[in-house]
Amino acid sequence: MKFCVDTDKNNSWYIGTKDYNSKMINKIETIMFQGNGYVGMRGVTEEPQLNEKRDMFVSGTFDAFPSEVTELPNLPDLLNMVFQVDGETLNLKDGQVKGYHKYLNMKNGELTREFTWIINHKQINFKFTRFVSMDNYHLLASKVTISADKDINLKIKSGIDGQQSNSGTQHLMEGSKRFYEGKFIQLTEKSQQSKIEFVFNSMHKLFVNEVLLNDKPYIKMGRRQIFENYDVDLAAGQIFQIVKYSNIFTSIDTDVKDDDLAEASVNCLKKSSWANYHELLQKSTRAWEKNIWKKNLVEIQSDDITPQVAINFARYQLAANTPHSPNMNIGAKGLTGEGYKGHTFWDTEIFMLPYFIFTMPKIARNLLEYRYLGLEGAHKKAIRNGYRGAEFPWEAANPSDGETAPLWGSADIVTGEPMKVWSGFIEQHITGDVVYAVMEYLNATNDRDFAKKMGYEIILDAARFWVSRLEYDQDHERYEITNVIGPDEYKEHADNNAYTNYLAHWCIQKAIQVVNILEEDHPDLYVTLDKKLDLAESYNDWISHVNKIYLPQPNEKGVIPQDDKYLAKRKIDVTKYQINDQISEIFKDYNLDQVNDLQVTKQADVMLLINLFDDYFDKDVKLANWNYYEPKTTHESSLSMPPHSMIANELGLDDQAYKFYRWTCETDMGVHVGKSVQGMHLASCGGIWSMTVQGFGGVRISNGKLRIDPHLPKAWSSLKYQICWHGSIVKVSITHDEMEVEVVGDGIEFINNGQEYQVPDNSKIEVDDFVPEKVKG
């Protein structure tokens, strides 16, 4: 694998660079992101630079601006520090830089940058370290260490800079600026539309040779700014340190009970500042270990360290971007940049949730509860579009908002006119994706409490939408779904997209099963939900419609039509568009209307259907569709590679499976700049885990049962991982010819190569006749 950062063969938690490259600033900012799920900030430098994206966000703090859709506001900069050495402002484009090294410790989220700056015949050594606390979600801490070979004068400006924006849009209105007790500075602001209050606090401690200085700062306040200024004379060889403690609180935080948010937040920072930087980092490190790493072991043995680095990177980013409240969800780019405005897509349910379901089910439940809380918004969207039930938004922000997708996108290369974004109107498979995720969670966890409180209602309400969405074709005497966008977003206004139709049919089947469960086992809950959802009438509709829904079948060659017209469209060679840099190369030659008339697919569509509904299709059909659709797929979307890798792995196409695995690992960490400058592709992070554990590790849910059918890449000698299944921890160790399954907790059953195995409580077994399917070339 080719990464834009260095790796260390002895430390798979390290990513770094010893090359200061101004062209890669935004890329490095993205992948060296730091966060804890509440707050996130890009890996920018402390001293401001040109062309940087100085973004910091707090999860769930959405705000709208007139004529624009809601988005996470870019918050005041708490990181900034400006250094002057004998009147020269620190800027790495000036003077000479030696020994540059910037690296992220993914085990605890600490970011370090060090170098020697040579200017005016003086060598000044700088070391910057910082972290976002996983122990105290509101806290950020940073430390700068400086020494020089000659006497120098240091001037330092550090504070809170509220002059940030979302690409020019300013969401926050300035409140008060205060200076407490000669130590703490504070800026308060409020979002313009959502009226969320924000409080930002900082304080500094200065040391020379570890002796605390009592220098009083000069405070300067400007518009949306409050800074502390220090002036320090430093003798040659002396070591200067400045430690900056900062925190953030908002009026929607659920862990703050004090009515005076400004006062309460300062008191919290006072308590934090009693500890030194190292002590706070240790607490955060322990929280990472306890809450994250102990719950999702993945160990890859290979001569190449990069696969282990990639899976560590993926899990780090998912942990750093996942909110802790069910009122919030993971944006497609999390908190790592302005891309997609912080909105949640189907990326969470299909590409990220498997990781949480199998490793941290409590977080998975939170993410699904967000969809339950979003039923209000889903009802709004359904009613607006003339349907019943819950039509989940393509882009979601606050749960009750409903659809938040923008109406217009980029310009058409032929007409020059802005193109309408149809996804918010007709990319409706998201409603089925949510139900799919609910069922995967229930199968893996057996969480009956969630089912009764939320899960059943989500399934039933979604089915009400689907049955209202069906259209009866009198000529064929069947129900169809026309005018949609499937996963392949190159095909707008498609009729009978196979993925959408199968998912709708499956959702209605699940709703019928749920009604039967309620009537038999939970009659009181049935009565409650009947009042809310009119179950008696809905059930009759489902029964009368479900067997008449048109499900596109494989043709004589075994190919499932992606939609009614796809197989009749003109074919072209898409090889030159299959370059893994996430840039829409095809739109340099065609506009969207033209692409719509070609047999060209953006991402896994029929292949995703086959991957999710693994039991529906035999291997001959899977191979036929692979051979037909993969050569026609540009893989422009980062969502395309994981399902392709997993299907190729199942089919024994080892080289293809590993190619798509490698591409996914390179989506953000690769050498190309691509779209990563606007933020991470968090679905790719989920995909890396899924390809590793569900693909190569063989973990699947088959008809509600756990299946483990591994097939390791040739380049790996072994794989170890652990998952949660029905409340027990399952540890799996695999080589190319052996498999061991250990259970911590209650015993489990699993299927391997069609045979069922039982593992008793707190014990382990070896699968003696484990023979992975041989690679077919």
Automatic annotation (TrEMBL):
The active site is at residue 489. It comes from the Bacteria. GO terms for biological process: carbohydrate metabolic process. Residues 700-759 form the Glycoside hydrolase family 65 C-terminal domain. InterPro entries: 6-hairpin_glycosidase_sf, 6hp_glycosidase-like_sf, Gal_mutarotase_sf_dom, GH65_N, Glyco_hydro_65_C, Glyco_hydro_65_M, Glyco_hydro_65_N, Malt_Pase/Glycosyl_Hdrlase. Residues 18-251 form the Glycoside hydrolase family 65 N-terminal domain. One of its GO terms (molecular function) is glycosyltransferase activity. Belongs to the glycosyl hydrolase 65 family. This is Kojibiose phosphorylase.
